[in-house]
Amino acid sequence: MQEAKPFSRIRSFLWPIHGYEHKKLFPIFVLFFLISFVYNVLRCMKVTLVVSASGSSAEIIPFLKVWAVLPGAIILTYIYTKLSSRLNREQVFYAMLTVFLGFFTIFMVFLHPNREALELTTLADFLQEKLPVWLKGLTGLIVMIRHWHLSLFYVLSELWSAVVLSMLFWGFANEITTVDEAKRFYAIFALGANSSGIFSGQCAKMLTLDHYNPYLPFGTVAWEQSLILQLCMVLLLGIIIVAIFRWLNQVILPRENIRVKNIDPKQETEEKKLSLKECFSYLTKSRYMSYITILVVAYNIVYNLSDVLWTEQIHERYPDISDFNAYINEIASVTGLFATISALLLSGNVIRRYGWTTTAMITPLLWLVTSIGFLGCLLLSSGNFLADFLGSLLGVPFYTLALIFGSAQICLGRAAKYTVFDESKEIAFIPLPREEQRKGKAVVDGIASRFGKSGGSLMIQMLLIVCGGLANTIPFVTVIFLVVMALWILAVRGLGKLASKAIDQELNTTSQSEPLDVRPLTSNN
Description:
With 525 residues, this protein is mostly helical.
């Protein structure tokens, strides 16, 4: 055992890592950074492919999240559970990575080059002809069926975060990291994950070609070449991830005498899983947990509503698929920059100085203020006197103004979520007794987040059916948005009154007690 010397005041703030811990910290940090990097690349790529497909638009996204991503998550979770009952943690990691990297390889060499032949054109055209006029809002669902291979790519890209990051990486990291190390290591991991968006966005943007390059031995148009280059980068990084993980398990961990615990997934599930009836029963009895649930559900609804409208604005402004991909990768870089700055300057500092309520109020107020500009521009149509006046006053076309406000909302809103929102939400669990914490985490992480994501997508779907098009849903989305924002703000105030004193007391003593879950919730969790 090496004696740990106390850190200086500056080092305890900037780099609270002992010298002998670097050989364990750096490989795990790089592993987390690369997994987050790949997710950010896939996140931009999946949206580009499904929204820019022939006959498609942002209307396809809510249908994908409900009718494709949710079943896909259930299937992959089942596969993961079965593998975990038969293989050790290291073997499960390799098996699940093989599933993802194998699919991306098949997509690159077979599915996408033969996309026109693989489209379910006959079935999609039949459904489109038989669709009643009052159900024209289901066009997104038909497009999802027509481009089933792109929908499958969207699902696997979306689930990279849930499976590779949440299940595989965090399951491994929590087993080889002590509580004392986690308090110091995980904040550094969070910075790595948030900053990965900066680099991934710029790398993907550099690999997005403006013109066809005849010297590249693949692709027939510029976008095909760009897609193959980005997928090759994903596959290469995937191989590096596997190599680092093997090196950790075969060299670093044995050298440090760290034994990875193999937890029985059935036993772990039985301890943590609550039935849906038990979850709702618990919520009705606990006003405290009801407030936390409202926070999570409200954020996911607000984000999903805004994300669909914003994506449609990008599609209208950048109909070319290469331009579309370059723009959203640029937004990913800016978001990563804001999240990194927020993690350095706001996380921890704001809550210690101003308390829990002020910290938790930052995210909803940020979304509310930015929505005034974004939704306000969407409500005003081009040609309107006020719209033309605002555009001329600011010196930009009105349709560009809506995209600017929407992009600012997504960048700032995501950055706030990755830092102060997740921090305040996790800290809200601290005053609860251990049993209440476990039940609360099961409700919030298992039910509330999924309900919020699915709820926002279902709202958009119902509005599309009623209104017939995304543009016609904007007034109704605005009303829903404002109602949800009001509930969110009221929940923050209510929870603050119940728990601020207890939270402030706990924050002063966290160094002497073990937290419930010290994992930072980053952009990929």
